[in-house]
């Protein structure tokens, strides 16, 4: 307090405590513990990825066998035909004949899934259909040229 009397400590603010405050450490440790428990629960509840089991070459395309139904997206960039499948598998490649024209196909794996790519000298059009057969998922890819 301001006044003409000298300060004797009765009305002044207390001095700072030299001991460290434990409250920020406690809050940080609770946040860290919550993060770690959340990550462990997330790993436990994440389903196993879909597995590409087998690739069969047909006259007009491919047949891919999976252990269960994957998410599939089709694209047609500049005359090629590409399927993006949310699955895990091995890389493979080869050739097939579409009429008299050869078609190169390649299965590539990445972190985002499996990419099935078809390339030919002429623009390709394709369609895919999936069905469950004996507890597994069959994805048939049929190609036709323009």
UniProtKB/TrEMBL annotation:
Domain of life: Bacteria
Keywords on record: Membrane, Transmembrane, Transmembrane helix
Claim: Transmembrane is one of the keywords in the record: yes
Keyword Membrane: yes
TM regions (residue ranges): 22-42
Name of the protein described by the UniProt record: Uncharacterized protein
Lineage: Bacteria, Pseudomonadati, Pseudomonadota, Gammaproteobacteria, Pseudomonadales
């Amino acid at each position: 307090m301001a006044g003409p009397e000298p300060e004797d400590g009765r009305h002044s603010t207390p001095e700072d405590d030299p001991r460290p405050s434990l409250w920020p450490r406690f809050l940080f440790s609770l946040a860290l513990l919550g993060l770690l428990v959340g990550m462990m629960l997330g790993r436990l509840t994440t389903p196993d990825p879909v597995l590409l089991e087998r690739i069969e070459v047909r006259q007009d395309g491919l047949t891919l066998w999976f252990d269960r139904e994957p998410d599939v997206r089709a694209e047609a960039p500049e005359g090629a035909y590409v399927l993006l499948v949310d699955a895990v598998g091995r890389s493979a490649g080869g050739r097939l004949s579409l009429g008299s024209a050869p078609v190169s196909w390649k299965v590539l794996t990445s972190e985002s899934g499996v990419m099935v790519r078809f390339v030919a000298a002429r623009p390709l059009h394709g369609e895919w259909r999936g069905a469950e057969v004996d507890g597994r998922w069959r994805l048939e890819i049929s190609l036709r040229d323009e």
